[in-house]
Amino acid sequence: MSVAVVGGGLAGIAAAVALQEAGIDVELYEARPRLGGATHSFQRAVDGLPGTSSLTVDNGQHVMLRAFTAYRGLLERLGTAGGVDLQDRFDLRILTPDDRPEARLRRTVFTRALPRSIALPGPLHLLPALARYSLLTPAERLRAAAASLAMGRVDPDDPLADTRSLGDWLDRHGQDDRSRRYLWELFVTAALNCRVEEASLGLSAMVIKTALLGRSDAADIGVPRLPLGELHGRAAEKHLRRVHLKTKVEAVVSGTRLVVDGFPVDADAVIVAVPHPAAAGLVPRAACPDRGRWGGLAASPIVDVHVVYDRPVLDGPFAAVVDSPVQWVFDRTAAAGLAGSGVQYVSSVVSAAGEWIDTPVARIRDAFLPALAEVLPAARRAGAAEFFVTRERHATFRQGPGSAALRPAAATRLPGLFLAGAWTATGWPDTMEGAVRSGLTAARLCRRHLQGGHDR
Ligand SMILES: Cc1cc2nc3c(=O)[nH]c(=O)nc-3n(C[C@H](O)[C@H](O)[C@H](O)COP(=O)(O)OP(=O)(O)OC[C@H]3O[C@@H](n4cnc5c(N)ncnc54)[C@H](O)[C@@H]3O)c2cc1C
């Protein structure tokens, strides 16, 4: 029995690992010279840094949550789970540009004061954090708490929720501009790569209910300590037995036949785990008659602004930023191999970055260096030894109203042919967790097909 997996991003890797573990022969085909897909690292030559002439750079900062159980399971299998620093409790600093005291949202942990049995369950565990959130007035905090509880009643799978935007819903629930900027935007823009006004209500509800209103530890934040290339791609290349890099699949003829390098290749089943534009061009019409609609998922960009300062400027591993073009900042020093060098490598992530995706580096520099100095006082005296920008034009699909209706299920109409990818109907946003879940679902259906069962 053999299965061909097309695409070596996290979805394809997860599917291939699961099938290999089940004793099935897997051939993984990846067009690029490496696995990892949208999560990868590269070397950048530098000349202004002490003791090094190159820097390990990720294509974009990636963040996980404790709620990413499938993704964490994949890292365990690849042997790289230790390469992520996961908070032992949700704790987020929020910086502002005008020297206001730093704000903080932190999950309350009950120690001896309260026995474990009466520690607050989700969503009530968040109320103490919200009650102390200094960027909102007491009245705004009350309204935000009421809206959070109302969000708990939105069904993410309700087709009506897919037709509405979060912005519209927030209007109806008394969330003014300040509450949007200082609370909702912080989480939703980062999680959905979409502005609140443009975000699907259904997906927003999914994220908020899972991360913030669900298990009390679900929102604990994890940040890679290893470069993404080591965490995913290289680890998978070692783990999987049959990986074909630089091998673009040209066509999928049926559930059992591919065309690779001009030659037919037969398998007992096929999983197509490529982005939606590539998938629409690969799978036969008979498999997915609605493949022409997938283009409606479109794309949303992410831009990362990277600065290596000649001294430390950021306390702690990361912080969110409001009232600034800078949305989040991360300390990348150790992951880039610069620990102990005296410099600090800070990356600033801009989600839903339509405004910046085509902006020349010099203009981004003119905007971001002063913006960073506004929120990081130590950066005002520091020099920028390196400054560069990474851009991902197709970072995720556009997770707006109507997107859930366009996402296909894993099973297709052709027996033995399955879809995977963070853009398919996982119920999750376009994230590493969504990608891994899609791969596991496709692998499960594939096994059932090989055992002679139904494909759905
Ligand atoms: C800058 C950036 C920041 C992000 N931040 C986060 C974050 O903080 N947290 C989070 O959870 N997610 C984040 N994401 C999203 C996350 O990276 C993706 O959801 C996930 O990696 C998608 O995985 P995938 O396997 O579905 O697709 P991909 O990673 O796109 O993999 C598809 C693979 O298919 C290959 N391929 C395409 N066509 C062919 C062909 N014909 N033959 C063979 N191979 C082919 C491609 O080369 C690619 O390797 C971010 C994404 C980006 C770009």
TrEMBL record:
Residue ranges of every copy of the Amine oxidase domain listed in the record: 10-445
Pfam families in the cross-refs: Amino_oxidase (PF01593)
Keywords (A to Z) from UniProt: Oxidoreductase
Cofactor(s) the protein needs: FAD
NCBIfam families, sorted: HpnE
Name assigned to this protein: Hydroxysqualene dehydroxylase HpnE
Organism: Catenulispora subtropica
Name of the coding gene: hpnE
